[in-house]
Amino acid sequence: MYIALSGALIGLGEIMDRREFIVGLTAGIGMPTLAWAKTELSSQISLGELQVMTLSDGHLTLPRSMLFAGLDPAAVDRILQRSKVAQGPIHPPINVTLLRHADRVVLFDTGSGPGFQSTAGQLVTALDAAGVGPEEVTHVVFTHCHPDHLWGVLDDFDDPLFPNAEYMMGQVEWDYWFDPNTASTISGDRASMAVGARRRLEVMEERLSRFGDGQEILPGVAAHASYGHTPGHMSFELRDGGQSLLILGDAIGNHHVSFSEPEWHIGTDQDAETAAKTRRRLLDMLAHDQMQVIGYHFPKGGIGRVLKAKSGYRFAPRGEG
Ligand SMILES: [Zn+2]
């Protein structure tokens, strides 16, 4: 998910700032209780030897008119009401996944950093609350290059925030955003996003490795192409101990409209038709296989399952039916 940076939207974000204070949330089995401080809702789970948790980077503030451009507002409202989404702008949470396995500390995406929206950019605080210093992160894996996923990779001095990490990205996604022509060929309102992505990729170029669809990029972690939201968007399947989980990124970008009506085009998808096909395929697979998921913008920490519903599907957060 992305949004063109604008003063009006930043202002809204400041007004809408809300934090949910939680202490010692433990959804996983056999995981230690962690003291969470002043971060939005997070969640955790174990898959065999893989210890997975989500860390909140805060949340975004997105106008409905952008997210649901071209859709019937009354029909969208009905779905949002059913999903108990409050009136007005949408406030998607931002769930960064942290994986601990053997001596690896792996982040999937890096949040948006301080310069995007005032209610986002809180990943470092969340990492600190989880007892992880930036220097301990061994790998940073990207789903795609939108600001709320990539821009947090640099610190205030434009150096990589995670000094000892290897950075990893799908080859197709890299090729698209590293191409200097993308800023002029992408639709106008996305040009600043392309410039911002390219600048960050240049800093990381020497230490970033690329991978393809289906590749096991780390033990227990396989890349799963989920194109459409961006040209080379990647999801990641974690598998161990007979359990599996798909880190969706923004392949399914919300838990309401895109679950209820997967075919409807979403304003933040760059190729909305391809994104809808990807979404339909993933929802079918996830519901059928009862595979766990992490949605980057799903509620309640983002971990849960996809269930079939009377119309379409619904998201069942971990711990709820
Ligand atoms: Zn996003």
How is this structure best summarized?
With 321 residues, the chain is α/β, with parallel strands linked by helices. The protein has 10 helices and 14 strands.
Question: What would you say this structure looks like, in words?
Answer:
This protein has 321 residues and is an alpha/beta fold. It has a single domain, classed as 4-Layer Sandwich (Metallo-beta-lactamase, Chain A), CATH 3.60.15. Helices cover 26% and strands 24% of the residues. The strands form two sheets. A seven-stranded mixed beta sheet has the order 1-2-3-4-5-6-7. Strand 5, helix 5 and strand 6 form a beta-alpha-beta unit. The site of zinc ion has 7 residues, from helix 5.
